[in-house]
């Protein structure tokens, strides 16, 4: 078991290394270099901006004349200092841009994780209790069909229905622009009001996974001997379900919640674009459109690292919850 | 295929194998279809309709998809069935031709990564030892990579073209079929009929072709459907972000240009510009999902496929 866990951490480290390597080498395998710029004057003739001497100077200034492995080490060293370079568009350090937008993303991702987990467990339990009855079948069919709609298309539907057609929710943004709040309650309300549809989209997209997992694990668990023992002891049906069945069925759900954060961090780019929600996903989109390469790389790194951290946390929490794993 | 037969003896053998397996597949497909539930049948019919739309796009549309054939933002009517976009291009034509894009990418990615990854997995499982261990490590890392963010970054750097999108998607989706094919192969390898065949002097290639591949094949087929729907979603997502191939109109590109049109939500344009690509994408994905669920159900007693975590 010990060995297994070491290999798990080792795998995460390797994965992180691969992402760093992709991040580092992608711009370098592109043709050209940052200083071989030319421009055109009014008559359309090419104007050389830098002389060869200047170019070499800048190459050595930015360390681009060193061998690749040394550049990679410098890159890693800068990363340790949380130096991700400067954004071309925002004209400020990439880490600052990310810090400005990350809280919004964290808020909607965590919000949806909680909502979809709680709702999924409740619906799954309901379904498992009414197994093979009409309500269970209907719910299963609906949920399964629902799960196949990718989150950004679902988001578009919700946006068109609730914001465009019924005009119940805002079309874009995370707060009302230029708003003056009379108090923190009003401000919180405004934030929740803007976050509602994005959070709904993400939660609905993840709901089916939790629902199916809860339902199926519960159904497996209820056939176990200790459930029969609990019933034979004369425990009430409610105690059997909550204390014996659900408690054991929740283990995989916890794992699922952790991985869900990872999946959502990937999907959130599209969902934020749909709702023009100013998180890092939306920033990534505008960075892609504006070809702001340092920012693109920085955001990728943040997303990747947060996914890896979640996986690590899941592993830790799981061994706490299930003593059988941590031997 | 028939012209290829007289190229060389080698090619003839390959064609023969292909013909055999295609015959076998079509037989088994026919059998499976009769086992499909109503949903599954709807799925198959839906996919057929979309394939027909893609194949006969020039015949069922009146206008080329990328030519200005009408006024800007005409509402649906007798001239343009589904209206026109902001440049005056016909929406119905774009939908039909866009089907080609989605289907091409979905099928190409699914078949390359399904059979390629499957072959790698079968070989690794059969050979075992260090090769197998090394492959498992690579698969672990590939599956742990956050695919969609990486997809965005790589296509932002490499530039948007259909080929790049297909290549990148293959790079991220071969691992699952490889892993499942490997574990299937490991299980099958232990069967006594394989050991018997070996003792009778069967060559590894023969065993792989006659015994292992046909057994792994159905699972790969289910995975291929899943991968193709993932690939279609990924392509649509990339195009929606503005990373689609600008030379072709895909459904994702339509979504991108419609949502990028300023103040579209304050006008009625979204009703004929945004809804058609949205609905047809969802329809295609639902059809694929119905088929894959049904196939899984049919295969289930024999094989357990873990749906993605």
Automatic annotation (TrEMBL), chain A:
Alphabetical list of PROSITE patterns matching this protein: ABC_TM1
Keyword NAD attached: no
Membrane topology: Multi-pass membrane protein
Gene3D superfamilies: MetI-like (1.10.3720.10)
GO BP annotation list: transmembrane transport
Stretches assigned to the ABC transmembrane type-1 domain: 102-314
CDD domains for the chain: TM_PBP2
A Gene Ontology cellular-component term: plasma membrane
Keywords: Membrane, Transmembrane, Transmembrane helix, Transport
Highest taxon, organism lineage: Archaea
UniProt-listed InterPro entries: MetI-like, MetI-like_sf
Membrane found in the keyword field: yes
TM spans (from-to): 7-26, 102-126, 138-162, 191-214, 253-275, 295-314
Location(s) in or outside the cell: Cell membrane; Membrane
PANTHER family in UniProt: OLIGOPEPTIDE TRANSPORT SYSTEM PERMEASE PROTEIN
Family designation: Belongs to the binding-protein-dependent transport system permease family.
Protein name: Peptide/nickel transport system permease protein
Annotated organism of origin: Methanolobus vulcani
From TrEMBL, chain B:
Listed CDD domains: TM_PBP2
Keywords, sorted A to Z: Cell membrane, Membrane, Transmembrane, Transmembrane helix, Transport
Keyword Heme: no
GO biological process, one term: transmembrane transport
Superkingdom of the organism of origin: Archaea
Pfam families referenced in this protein's UniProt entry, alphabetically: BPD_transp_1
Entry membrane topology: Multi-pass membrane protein
Transmembrane segments: 42-63, 103-128, 148-172, 219-243, 272-292
Domain ABC transmembrane type-1: 103-292
Compartment(s) of residence: Cell membrane
Gene Ontology CC terms: plasma membrane
Family: Belongs to the binding-protein-dependent transport system permease family.
Name assigned to this protein: Peptide/nickel transport system permease protein
Organism: Methanolobus vulcani
């Amino acid at each position: 078991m010990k060995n297994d866990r070491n290999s798990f951490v080792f795998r995460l480290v390797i994965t992180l290394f691969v992402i760093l390597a992709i991040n580092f080498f992608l711009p370098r395998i592109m043709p050209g270099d940052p200083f071989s710029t030319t421009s055109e004057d009014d008559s359309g003739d090419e104007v050389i901006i830098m002389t060869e001497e200047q170019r070499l100077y800048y190459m050595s200034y930015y360390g681009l004349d060193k061998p690749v492995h040394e550049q990679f080490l410098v890159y890693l060293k800068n990363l340790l200092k949380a130096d991700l370079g400067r954004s071309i568009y925002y004209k400020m350090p990439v880490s600052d841009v990310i810090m400005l937008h990350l809280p919004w993303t964290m808020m909607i991702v965590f919000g949806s994780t909680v909502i979809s987990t709680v709702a999924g467990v409740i619906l799954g339990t309901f379904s498992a209790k009414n197994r093979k009855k009409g309500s269970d079948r209907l719910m299963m069919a609906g949920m399964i069909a629902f799960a196949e709609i990718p989150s950004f298309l679902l988001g578009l539907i919700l946006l068109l229905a609730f914001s465009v057609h019924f005009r119940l929710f805002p079309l874009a943004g995370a707060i009302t622009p230029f708003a003056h709040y009379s108090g923190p309650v009003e401000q919180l309300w405004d934030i929740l009001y803007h976050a509602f549809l994005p959070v709904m989209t993400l939660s609905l997209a993840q709901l089916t996974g939790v629902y199916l997992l809860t339902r199926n694990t519960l159904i497996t668990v209820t056939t176990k001997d200790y459930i029969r023992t609990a019933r034979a002891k004369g425990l009430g049906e409610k105690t059997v379900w909550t204390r014996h069945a659900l408690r054991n069925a929740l283990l995989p759900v916890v794992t699922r919640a952790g991985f869900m954060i990872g999946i959502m961090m990937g999907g959130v780019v599209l969902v934020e674009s749909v709702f023009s929600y100013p998180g890092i996903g939306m920033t990534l989109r505008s960075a892609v459109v504006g070809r702001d390469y340092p920012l693109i790389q920085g955001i990728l790194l943040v997303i990747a690292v947060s996914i890896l951290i979640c996986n690590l946390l899941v592993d830790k929490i799981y061994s706490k919850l299930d003593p059988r794993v941590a031997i | 295929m028939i012209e290829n037969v007289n190229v060389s003896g080698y090619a003839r053998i390959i064609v023969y194998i292909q013909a055999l397996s295609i015959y076998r597949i079509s037989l088994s497909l026919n059998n499976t279809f009769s086992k499909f539930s109503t949903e599954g049948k709807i799925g198959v019919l839906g996919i057929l309709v979309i394939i027909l739309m893609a194949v006969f796009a020039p015949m069922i549309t009146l206008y080329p998809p990328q030519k200005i054939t009408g006024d800007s933002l005409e509402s649906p009517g007798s001239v343009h069935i589904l209206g026109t976009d902001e440049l005056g291009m016909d929406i119905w034509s774009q939908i039909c031709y866009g089907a080609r894009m989605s289907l091409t990418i979905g099928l190409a990615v699914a078949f390359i990564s399904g059979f390629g990854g499957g072959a790698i997995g079968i070989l690794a499982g059969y050979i075992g030892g260090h090769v197998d261990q090394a492959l498992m490590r690579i698969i672990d890392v590939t599956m742990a990579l956050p695919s969609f963010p990486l997809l965005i970054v790589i296509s932002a750097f490499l530039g948007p073209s259909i080929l790049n999108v297909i290549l990148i998607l293959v790079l991220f989706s071969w691992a699952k079929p490889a892993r499942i094919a490997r574990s299937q192969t490991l299980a099958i390898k232990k069967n006594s009929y394989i050991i018997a065949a070996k003792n009778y002097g069967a060559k590894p290639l023969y065993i792989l072709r006659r015994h292992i591949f046909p057994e792994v094949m159905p699972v790969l087929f289910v995975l291929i459907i899943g991968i193709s729907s993932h690939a279609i979603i990924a392509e649509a997502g990339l195009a929606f972000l503005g990373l689609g191939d600008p030379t072709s109109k895909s459904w994702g590109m339509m979504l991108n240009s419609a949502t990028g049109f300023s103040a579209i939500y304050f006008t009625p344009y979204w009703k004929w510009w945004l809804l058609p690509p949205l609905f047809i994408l969802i329809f295609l994905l639902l059809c694929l999902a119905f088929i894959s669920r049904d196939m899984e159900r049919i295969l289930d007693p024999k094989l357990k496929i873990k749906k993605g975590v």
